[in-house]
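Now produce a polypeptide, keeping tokens residue-aligned:
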Amino acid sequence: MRPEPSSGGAGLRPMRVLMVLESNFPVIGGGGAESQVRTLAMRLRERGHRVTVLTPLRDPDLTPARIGRHEGIPVLRIAYPRIRLFGSLVLWLRLLAFLARHGRRYDAWHVHIAHHLGALTTMMGRRIGRTVVVKISGWWELKKGLLRDDGGLVARIGQRWLRGAHALQAISHRIEAELLRHGFAGERIVALPNAIDTRRFGLRAAPAADGVPTAVFVGRLVPEKGLGVLLDAWADAFPQAGRARLRLVGAGPLEASLRAQAERLGIAAQVEFLGHRSDVEHLLREADFGVLTSTIEGLSNTLLEFMASCLPVVASRVSGSEDFIVDGRNGWLFEPGDHATLAHRLADAVARGRPGLHRLGCQARADVAARADLDVVVDRLLALYRGEDPARITASATLPQGD
């Protein structure tokens, strides 16, 4: 167990943290917000703190217990009727009742999705004097949730309540800019990325110079991941087999159409569809670089895993990726949907050769460890939980420019 930092010779007491989710916990296959809750909760527990997860009971067939544990983490689930509008009202009232009755047991409340439950939690936190940290966990909140531009009365009320949080955790600089545009106070916004447990992803030995470079994608096979563009660009960059191979790790509704596209483009022999896998760390150790062609992200956990695995990344210039990837330093960026530029970036990556890619990958790991290592993020969150001024809790310096 890593000891907590001391102040004035006296150790800081353990914290009791309530993490509030808008979705099920856990989720089979893992979602970004749910994965982060697990990652943070496990490390906080290792360091002697108490963490409880509060979530709606959205799928009683999947998670029937209202009170349970997941990997030792206490999970409280709020049941509510499956009746449109009425069910939501019951859920909201039961959330408020729980917080009013039991909320003082916790030193800090950490909201992981800034939607209806997050707004209500923030409002109640102010009423009973709890420290509330609200994380903007993805682009969804800004485009479809309470923070969208065309929101109605409920969205406006929700935004007003969210502004009362002790701190707003923006996981990317683009999200930070959007919060400022929506009128949130800059001194309450903390640019703090998702966390990556770098201990899970060990350093790799330099590969042999021979051998075909392997690119890997990890994620769901869905439209927003831009995989059709990836296959088009791959065919342009490598019309003949033997120069590189592409491994797609994940399942989803587009698998059949992507297989057909690979056949039509004549690259089926270069592309492996591996489906959902539980040994992702092993697969990343076998790869030479990562590819992320998303059209929209908050901050991809997969990006952080690639970098922690010593993989440079060819990534679309979207929220989060643009904060970590610097051309020629630890990967390459391209505009979402621009398959011609993507083809050039893929060709550039393969032209580096396996040893050259490994050198960039070592830099990628150093960069992600400096800014998003789990203990770096947890230290800053603990400072926020203890009520420190958000303006003083800043992310590490911006990465230097690439070659």
Remarks:
- The first strand starts at residue 6 and ends at 7.
- The radius of gyration is 22 Å.
- The chain has 14 helices and 16 strands.
